[in-house]
Design goal:
There is one protein chain. By secondary structure, this protein is α/β, with parallel strands linked by helices. About 45% of the residues lie in helices and about 15% in strands. It is built from 17 helices and 13 strands. The protein has helices at about 20-30, 70-75, 85-100, 115-125, 140-150, 160-165, 210-230, 245-250, 265-275, 290-295, 305-310, 325-335, 340-355, 365-375, 375-385, 385-390, 395-410, and strands spanning about 5, 35-40, 55-60, 80-85, 105-110, 150-155, 175, 200-205, 235-240, 260, 275-280, 300-305, 320. The strands form 2 sheets. The chain has a 7-stranded parallel β-sheet, with helices on both faces. The chain has a 6-stranded parallel β-sheet with strand order 10-9-8-11-12-13, sandwiched between helices. Helix 3 links the parallel strand 4 (about 80-85) and strand 5. The longest helix is centred in the middle third of the chain and has 21 residues, at about 210-230.
Length: about 400
């Protein structure tokens, strides 16, 4: 019997963020392969976390820096362990390696945190981001070490695959491209999506715990929205997102048609009824769930180069990709008012999904990848000498620090 232990950074909230949706996709992929699944996390319960038991997933609360995890993982004896982001591998990877040495260790990066942070730093310093910035980024050292220690890392973006292989010289056998995935029945088409006339408003949607989203909303409010509003006086921009802080709520201004509406009860319904999605991201990483969702429900979008990164391949965007704020606003107005261009953009989105994000494009190959690694695990690890080196030396410091904290907590 194949069994999977997922060690989660947080409990999945698919209605709050793309990361939560991504986790549920991974659970589904492994269940399709016949795995029994246990999801463990040191995080506190949240009001919006999904009920994992409804998806036949066992839920287990675990404690940081505690030998209780050793007993738990040894008794569970999973055949595969999936770490949700590199921070969980840092905390629990050495314990898994020690107690379950034959378990396949997989890291789901979500996106490269170091890339997002380095771009954010460059933005705040008002300069161009360079890939060499990553070579001096402390988080990059931790993240790359985690990737090397694992048997396989799931990467959501082709740009990030290229960055890891070319800049960090990671062997391709340690990386696997697996973007956000959609089920065929989850994608609307021209016969089922709402028409141009039945839609209204510009919409932004995104989790406010994510710094790039907060920055994008500020940019919209201060720079882009006034330019749009000047051309379309009756237009409204609806800002949705989980966990809005007071500084976000203070941007609400009904007179200006800029509405902060907080968490959406049903994000899909919001996107489905919007005419245009605005996503002016100025830094970030990975691929953007909010833009894929817009394509899914036939809603054209205007975004930046960062927003569209690695999402469309050689295909035309479902709207416009612009970095200049004036052109961004003009294109948004153009898309909002011209039905012919709007319909063409909508069709582009359906085509991007069809060719790049359907689950059927990836599930069989992913299953084969897991089985092949399990069958050849000793040789795979011999080929990854740097990973073994880091496991032996670097992780010792993590292990002894954890044990020190463990002893300290007993007093």
């Amino acid at each position: 019997m194949q069994s999977l232990l997922i060690i989660g950074f947080v409990w999945p909230e698919p209605n709050s963020s793309a990361a939560g949706g991504r986790m549920m996709q991974l659970i589904s992929l492994f269940q399709e392969q016949g795995f029994t699944i246990t999801f463990a996390s040191p995080a506190q319960d949240s009001d919006f976390m999904i009920d994992l038991q409804l998806f036949q997933v066992d839920k287990k609360a675990i404690v940081l820096n505690s030998e209780s995890f050793d007993t738990f993982v040894q008794e569970l004896n999973p055949t595969v362990v999936l770490f949700d982001r590199f921070m969980m591998e840092e905390q629990f990877g050495w314990r898994v390696a020690e107690k379950c040495p034959n378990a396949l260790r997989i890291l789901d990066t979500e996106d490269l945190h170091s890339l997002r942070l380095a771009r954010q730093k460059a933005f705040k310093e008002n300069r161009e981001f360079k890939t060499t910035d990553l070579l001096v980024e402390e988080v990059a050292k931790r993240e790359i070490a985690s990737i090397l220690r694992c048997d396989l890392s799931l990467i959501i973006s082709e740009f990030e695959i290229e960055l890891l292989t070319n800049t960090f010289k990671i062997d391709a056998s340690l990386l696997y491209y697996l973007p956000l995935l959609l089920e065929p029945q989850a994608v609307l088409n021209l016969n089922t999506t709402l028409s141009f006339e039945r839609r209204k408003d510009f919409v932004f949607i995104g989790n406010f715990l994510h710094e790039p989203n907060w920055n994008a909303v500020q940019y919209l409010k201060e720079t882009i929205w006034p330019l749009i509003k000047k051309q379309v006086p009756d237009a409204v921009c609806c800002i949705y997102g989980a966990y809005p802080s007071q500084k976000v709520l203070q941007l609400h201004n009904a007179k200006e048609g800029f509405l902060i509406l907080g968490r959406a009860d049903n994000a899909q319904e919001v996107v489905k009824h919007a005419r245009v999605v605005l996503t002016p991201l100025r830094f970030g990483a990975g691929i953007k769930g909010k833009l894929l969702e817009a394509m899914q429900f036939g809603t054209p979008s205007v975004t930046t180069t960062i927003g569209a990164e690695s999402m469309q391949g050689d295909l035309s965007w479902n709207g416009f990709v612009e970095d200049n704020c004036i052109i961004f606003a003009n294109k948004a107005v153009f898309l909002y008012q011209d039905e012919k261009i709007w319909l063409e953009a909508q069709q582009n989105g359906f085509e991007i999904i069809k060719q790049r994000y359907m689950r059927t494009l990836f599930e069989s190959e992913f299953k084969e990848q897991i089985l092949t690694l399990q069958e050849n695990l000793p040789q795979h690890r011999l080929n990854n000498f740097l990973g073994a080196l880091l496991q032996h030396h670097t992780l010792k410091s993590t292990m002894y620090m954890s044990k020190w904290i463990e002893e300290k907590n007993k007093r």
